[in-house]
Amino acid sequence: MKQRDQLEQFILDRRDAFDDAVPGLKAWGEISKELDRRKHKKHILWRAIGVAASVLILLMSGALMGRHYTQQQYAEAPLEKVAPEYAQLEKQYQEEINQKYAQLASFNKVGVVDQDLAQLDEVMKELKEELLVAPRGKEMEIVESLLNSYQAKVAILERVLERIQPTSPNSEKGESKDEISI
Fold this sequence. Notes:
Blueprint: H1 2-13, H2 15-20, H3 25-76, H4 78-82, H5 84-106, H6 111-133, H7 139-164, H8 169-172
């Protein structure tokens, strides 16, 4: 402690001499250069960060726009894009379903199958959505499931039409299909 007190006393006694000392212009020039260099480094760093952020934003927006465009194309005709050979088959099933549904409507029995068809439509909608994001290799499996759903719709409509339509001359006389005439 004594040594510190002596140092403090020495500084206090010669304070005026310390305050009179001014660094030379060369020292101030070196300090100024160092500050400018640091400021310049910070400026370059911030500029590089800005450029990197701009590039990242451009890439992300391009990727998002590309994804949206691709999904929009697939949403319009997913089966045509993924499996063009099955697209014609899908159209044929749609035409057959529409034809059988129109026949069913002519008998005023549409309400009988609407619930079943609505369930199948929901399954098909989910399959089409799944087809949009399916990993490579899984697409054909989903396409086959989709075509099976079309086949199920056709089968339901055919079964209902068979039960409603008179198929043989005996059915007009009131005999059922299960009865045998003697």
